[in-house]
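INFO  loader      accepted 1 record
INFO  loader      residues=333
INFO  predictor   begin
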Amino acid sequence: MEAFELTMKNQFFVDRFNKNKIIMYKDLRYNSKHNSYEFYNRYEKVKLGFQLCDFINTVFSDINSIKTFINKYGIGTIANLSNIKIYQNYSKKEYNEMIDDVIEKVKEKLNIYKNAFISDITYIYNLNELEELKDLTPAKRLYILRESKKVSEVRRLYDPDNLKLSLNNFGDFTKVSVTEENYAQEIAKTVSNEDLSAYCFESNDIVQTFIIELFEMAEIENIVIKKCKNCGKFFVPDNRIDEIYCNNIYENNKTCKEVGPFRTKQKLMKENDDLRIYRNVYQKLLLRTRRNPENDKYEKDFEQFKLKNIELKEKIEKGKLTQEEYMEWLEKQ
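INFO  predictor   done
INFO  writer      dumping tokens
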């Protein structure tokens, strides 16, 4: 096999006005004619935040989840973090072995990076709904992370040596296909030295590209990262920034946006029904105590019930007890 180093930097064109980015990087794709994987220049156009969300939604303890990310964005996006040489051609067997080697070398590292981004994203977009952050914009929260005593987890990962800014240069388009030439023309119309709403940068380090992307998003109005109220995955709303459900397929080929409202209604009904049962038990024990003031046992039972209820609620929050087990206990009172 003929080896080549991924020396050409992965290149990114950021269009702040249209809230998207174009990516150019080296990758391998399957050639059915030769029954092998071969090197090519790959181009992708995605909305700002989409690739970042796919990254932090990846379960790095699950090889299939990592492979899903690789299949979508290419091995070229993470190969350089592994220090494994990438070759010009691979048989199917060789390609799968190479993918497994890269995953084994980078999965723990990528999981650390993922958690750092989740920490900053949670703060910047106030996903925990903290009262003290409610009236601040994402840009102001980002400023607090970067400049105040609260340290940004992501900023610790910043490495300027693995990043190169280029205001008016994006790739070598002298030997590209018609489709890729269209990208070049689109960029040429948008980028100029005077227009800093659009620019290019180069990096082989996926972490540096996501740092730029996150910090850019925080500065742009009407684009946010949210956490789906149904599946819990991170997403960038398609249309309205107040959307609470993502477009990921959840079940029966339906998205969270389609099934979320119904499931939320069901959950609220279930919670209300559970609360009704708790109140009935509480009232029953309270009335029994009041009607029998001379009976110390009833009063002790009532006090023990309240204490036990607090204990079990805390176990539910910590994941040590299910809601169903709690309801079984309630119904026995």
